[in-house]
Amino acid sequence: MPIPFHKYHALGNDYLVLDPADLSGCHETIPYSEEEIVRICHRNFGLGSDGILWGPCPVEGANFGLRIYNPDGSEAEKSGNGLRIFTRYLYDSGRVRNEEFTIRTPGGVVKSQVHSDGLITVEMGKVSFSSDTIPVLPKEPVREVLNETISVLGTDYRYCAATIGNPHCVLPMDEVSEELARKIGPHIENDKRFPNRTNVQLLKVLDRNNIQIEIWERGAGYTLASGSSSSAAGSVARRLGLVDSDITVHMPGGLLKLHIDEGYHVTMTGPATRVGEMQLNEEALA
């Protein structure tokens, strides 16, 4: 029997939503192996996406549970774009309206809300720059990982690390490009100082209220937009004193609005677009 998937994108970062209610006997974790997830996400041999959102699944301490799977089959702790897409799916399926509600991911509980204009706000949580929380090796001495040096392909770069439930490595630069993100991103993602691998952002500060980023996403590769990457890069810029509390993040896929308070709690507002419904035939997994 074909399995229904619901496809959405958030500024060009696309996900497939797989609802446990559409499958019998499935609960907290997705009923596919890593190899099968890779096949489903493949843009030639599968349905094609930057990942799969499995939910709503059983959870305690929140209204809904969500598990997030990367196109390489690994599981992500948190995704800002994924959370906006999942919020939109809950709205489209009649589970929520315009009231605020909570979602639990492996990276923590967030608050989410669909506004009357269709934009979605997610309270992403608190950013930490601490080496033992991100984590970044060596963990001792415990420190804020700011303005440290990483060597990639013979070039030294200045970087800052952060977590908002998932790890990020932010490289402040005078100029950023897709070409450079693709060139150095995979090396930084798999650098031994990041035991859980890391997401990578190239950051250019445009002015006190605008930043530009290029993104290499852990487990997914070059990405047009990312909510958690925006949150991490914006918070690094604020920690370095380069931006104010309200900023717009410019990405190849579009714009996101962030509010970052003095405690580095991040509120993100942006769109999520419904693409359509797709059906997976088991033949594709053979």
Descriptive account of the structure:
- With 286 residues, the protein is an alpha+beta fold.
- The protein has two domains: 3-115 and 272-285, Diaminopimelate Epimerase, Chain A, domain 1 (Roll); 126-270, Diaminopimelate Epimerase, Chain A, domain 1.
- It is built from four helices and 18 strands.
- The mean pLDDT is 96.
| Number of helical stretches of at least 4 residues | 4
Q: Report strand %.
A: 35-45%
Question: How is the CATH topology of the largest domain named?
Answer: Diaminopimelate Epimerase, Chain A, domain 1
Task: Indicate the radius of gyration in whole angstroms.
Answer: 18 Å
Q: How much helicity do the residues have? A: 10-25%
**Overall spatial form:** globular
| Total domain modules | 2
Based on secondary structure, the structural category is alpha+beta
CATH superfamily of the largest domain: Diaminopimelate Epimerase, Chain A, domain 1
**pLDDT below 50 for ≥5 consecutive residues: which ranges?**
none
CATH class categorisation of the largest domain: Alpha Beta
Q: What is the average per-residue confidence, as pLDDT, rounded to a whole number?
A: 96
